[in-house]
Amino acid sequence: MNITKTVAAIDSKKPNTKQELIAANVKLLIEQLEAGHSEALTHYLTAMSRFHQYSFGNVLEIARQMPTATRVAGFWTWKNLGRNVKAGQKGIRILAPMVGVRRKKDEEAKKDITKQNERVLLGFRNAYVFDISQTEGVDLPNLHEVCGDPGENIDRLAAFLKGKGIQLVYNEKIAPALGLSYGGRIAILPGLSKAEEFSTLVHETAHELLHKAERRTVTTKTVRETEAEAVAFVVGKAVGLVTGSASADYIQLYHGNASLLAESLEVIQQTAASILAALEPPIAEDVTSEELEDVAA
Q1: Is 248 a domain residue?
Q2: Entry's InterPro entries (predicted)?
């Protein structure tokens, strides 16, 4: 298989909707998996950890075009941060929303005079971002301090669970399991290292968020465990923890079921983004109304 030709084919067709964008990237990912490149899934999960403020389709698009990207922003955002895009650099194409204002009908407007107009999504347009490696200028502070200690994130995650009405307990009787999810209650084995406790807590939180809702595709216990572990991988990467998951483990998300793979990746991205949003608010300096596409999620 010639991956370069496949990528070029996607670029030539220029997907113009988020559905087309996701379908094209999942198709390419499946071709890589079937060619024996199991690490391709890990690359996509790593991209999720780096760009959790972006929509699912644009995360796939960034990972496909530049798997090594670590921090992206638009041309003028880099300018405002004191960095310039190097001459000759090719932008990473994403889809950005076009939002307009629609005036409410008179009868609707009379019901609430404080809200006369409403924002509506008109469609999507091409936008281009650049990785920090494509720029030069002043040094920027690190987004995360890379270390093996989750710090306050355990407390923040516990607060997130409380806000969701999910009880968190520590119970030595669950051994040898490190953690268990009961649907509305999570039990964690006491005495774990802080890194292991955090990773286990994220894994069980993922079960609570991922697998208590209706799914389009029937899943297996193996897939559900792999999805939860993938969320723990994404969140752990984002906060700077070393994770022990091997790339070959994530092949269990596929096993010949393209629909399940696409669904799994999307719910992994959404679940990890939800947890990361609770741990750390979005970094405003990287965000402009034109470059972030939360509406597209």
Answers
A1: yes
A2: ArdC_N
